[in-house]
Specification:
Elements lengths: L5 H14 L3 H25 L5 E6 L4 E5 L8 H13 L2 H14 L11 H16 L2 H15 L2 E2 L4 E2 L11 E3 L6 H12 L1 H18 L9 E4 L6 E5 L11 H18 L2 H15 L26 H16 L3 H18 L19 E4 L4 E5 L2 H18 L1
Antiparallel strand pairs: 1-2, 3-4, 5-6, 6-7, 8-9
Helix pairs in contact: 1-12, 2-3, 2-13, 3-4, 3-5, 3-13, 4-5, 5-6, 5-7, 6-7, 7-8, 7-9, 9-10, 9-11, 11-12, 11-13, 12-13
InterPro entries: 6-hairpin_glycosidase_sf, 6hp_glycosidase-like_sf, Glyco_hydro_88, UG_Glycosaminoglycan_Hydrolase
Keywords: Hydrolase, Signal
Pfam families: Glyco_hydro_88
């Protein structure tokens, strides 16, 4: 591994101090955030038309931006609602969650890209976990089978997007997140083939997406005929060779999750290597909320990405469950520091503002000039998930 810089060492020492904070402080922080989230999402509920999902908020126009249910983020809003219902028991929140599942269910047959896990497991997965409604389980299993139609044996991976002028057979690091749908479904009636596909994909990702320092390329483009790597590029990062921040968080989360299901130490080791790259990165700010790319031009005068931070926090909390001693303390303390930062006025919206979204300052895609420095549904989702995980595992 790389030699740790002075700045990175100072960050690790700061994390040690965070690990010593009283649990009462975190309980209060979590309770406050959950109450805030319920009130904010009720603002969002009252604005949202009945047949769409929230996407972001355009402050310049004071306008909620929505999407159809085929948009890759369509599962995050109902998924967040289920987490909030689990925490509060608020029946209005549950009713809204059930209503949104009703318009989302048809996407269980969607095969247009790899995002069925985000769409159907974050939503119906949480719903089934809390209700044991067999209808929800059927939706999950159907969605998993739909996702397998994108598996390409020649490249030993699930093709993320269809071919285009830019890519022939692209596989993106984000796809690690969608393997949860396959792993869960394979163990709950969907068949061993689902697990095999997920694990084959994860193994190929380790082989082809990761650099020696355990940063990840965003896109690996394959020759579908030969199965060989054609190019390693980016679609949303600063450069092909850079470490796009949310992509690094997706990988951390994805390999931690794969260890949860398989107990394959290769995945745990991969997750720990990624965590080391992130937490010792000289360009990681002191509050641990990443810039939109770890190699972004203009650091420190460039955008942060709260979504990359929230995904990282949730992943680190689970990684702490599979670690011991100082290593565990470092992961949990880092997550705590991220959650504390996201809960501050620097990132958390004021009540009644931000279109009902929780967090400010996320980045969708700077190269596409899309969703830059705005609230995003997945930033909220993983923020709430991380808070729920902290309460469950560490209080």
């Amino acid at each position: 591994m790389k030699k740790i810089s002075t700045a990175a060492l100072a960050c690790l020492l700061t994390l040690t101090l965070f690990a010593q904070q009283k649990s009462d402080d975190m309980k209060q922080l979590i309770d406050d955030n959950m109450r805030f989230a319920v009130e904010q999402y009720k603002v969002l509920m009252n604005t949202l038309p009945p047949d769409v999902m929230p996407k972001t908020y355009d402050a310049s126009k004071n306008q909620l931006v929505t999407s159809d249910t085929k948009w890759w983020c369509s599962g995050f809003y109902p998924g967040t609602l289920w987490y909030l219902y689990e925490y509060t028991g608020d029946t209005a929140i549950r009713h809204e969650a059930e209503k949104r599942l009703g318009i989302l269910e048809k996407e269980k047959h969607y095969t247009g890209n790899h995002d069925l896990g985000f769409m159907m497991y974050c939503s119906f997965g949480n719903a089934y976990r809390l209700t044991n409604n067999p209808a929800y389980k059927d939706v999950i299993l159907t969605a998993a089978q739909s996702l397998t139609t994108r598996y390409r044996p020649s490249i030993k991976s699930i093709q993320s997007w269809d071919s285009s002028k830019s890519f022939r057979c692209p596989v993106i690091i984000d796809n690690m997140m969608n393997l949860e749908l396959l792993e869960w479904s394979g163990r709950n009636g969907g068949g061993k083939n689902l697990e095999n596909i997920a694990e084959t994909h994860a193994n190929t990702t380790i082989k082809n997406h990761y650099r020696p320092d355990y940063s990840s390329y965003h896109v690996v483009d394959y020759n579908l005929v030969t199965g060989q790597v054609a190019a390693k590029k980016t679609a949303q990062g600063a450069a092909d060779s850079s470490a796009w921040s949310r992509g690094q968080s997706w990988g951390l989360y994805g390999f931690t999750m794969m260890y949860r299901f398989t107990k394959n130490k290769t995945y745990l080791d991969q997750a720990k290597h990624i965590a080391h790259f992130l937490l010792t990165n000289p360009n990681l700010p002191s509050d641990l909320i990443p810039y939109w790319d770890y190699d972004a031009p203009g650091i420190p005068d460039t955008y942060r990405d709260a979504s990359a931070g929230s995904v990282m926090a949730s992943a680190l909390l689970e990684l702490g469950q599979y670690s011991k001693g100082k290593e565990k303390e470092t992961y949990v303390a880092a997550a705590k520091k991220i959650l504390t930062a996201l809960s501050s006025s620097a990132y958390r919206a004021q009540p009644g503002t931000n279109g009902g979204f929780l967090l400010m300052h996320s980045v969708g895609s700077i190269p596409h000039k899309s969703e830059v420095d705005v609230p995003l549904t997945y930033a909220d989702y993983y923020f709430i998930e991380a808070l729920a995980r902290y309460k469950k595992w560490y209080l």
